[in-house]
Amino acid sequence: MVRLRKFAAYQNLKRPYTRISKYTKKNFVRGGFPALKIIKFDMGTPQKTYDTTIILTTQEAMNIRQNALESARMTSNRLLEKTLGKEYHLRVKVYPFHVLRENALASGAGADRLSTGMKLAYGKPVGSAARVREKQTLIELRLNKANLKLGREALTRAAKKLPCACKVVAL
Predict the structure, then answer these.
(1) Among 92, 120, 154, 171, which one is most buried in terms of CB atoms within 10 A?
(2) pLDDT over 70 for what percent of the chain?
(3) How far apart are CA 134 and CA 141, in angstroms?
(4) CB 73 within 8 A of CB 38
């Protein structure tokens, strides 16, 4: 397992490099799409009708790694599940489709036999990230008005797990 690189290497939203080669087999990301870490996108009871909606929106455009999204989801869901049972509907609205790649170079003794340097340096997939715009909804929470304060607290906790400035808005 590859150790996670600092997120500063991936957070800006410039257009990702896409390999274009005269050999078609080199035109795609080798290794496939990395395994998704977000287990569920919908939690609680989605069929029921609720009278209040609270959303978590971003204040800046950037990439958000799937690890951060899963951490935010788990934190808010755990608080809601402990106190409300299943009387809410929490939905993660973004999908981490952008593949993060890394050209891992070996260092130390014997590294000359393990790495190819910058030859074929396109990189192997190490994770994925969601590309979000400014004021885009990340997480939506529907619940009853009596639990509004708890819902705000759950989304505030989720915002602390994300690498960008976020805002909790009750609709």
Answers:
(1) 154
(2) 85
(3) 19
(4) yes
Q: What one-letter code names the amino acid at 3?
A: R
Residue 93 lies in a domain: yes
Location of structure tokens 């050209």: 103
Place of tokens 């036999």: 113
Does 22 reside within a domain?
A: no
Going from the C-alpha of 22 to that of each of 28, 31, 123, 144, the distances in angstroms are: 12, 20, 18, 58
Mean pLDDT across the chain, nearest whole number?
A: 86
Q: Is residue 19 part of a domain?
A: no
Residue spans of alpha helices (H) in the chain: 66-84, 148-160
Q: Residues 76-135: pLDDT tens digits?
A: 999 999 999 999 999 999 999 988 888 777 666 665 665 666 776 677 888 899 999 999
Scan for tokens 């939203």, then name that residue. 13
Q: Based on the structure, what is the number of domains in the chain? A: 1
Range of the domain at 101: 7-14+32-170
| 164 assigned to some structural domain | yes
Between the alpha carbon of residue 38 and those of residues 83, 112, 114, 128, 130, the distances in Å are 23, 37, 33, 11, 12
CATH number at residue 94: 3.90.1170.10
For residue 118, what are its two tokens? Answer: 């910058």
Nearest residue to 125 via CA among 163, 107, 98, 96: 98
pLDDT at 115: 63
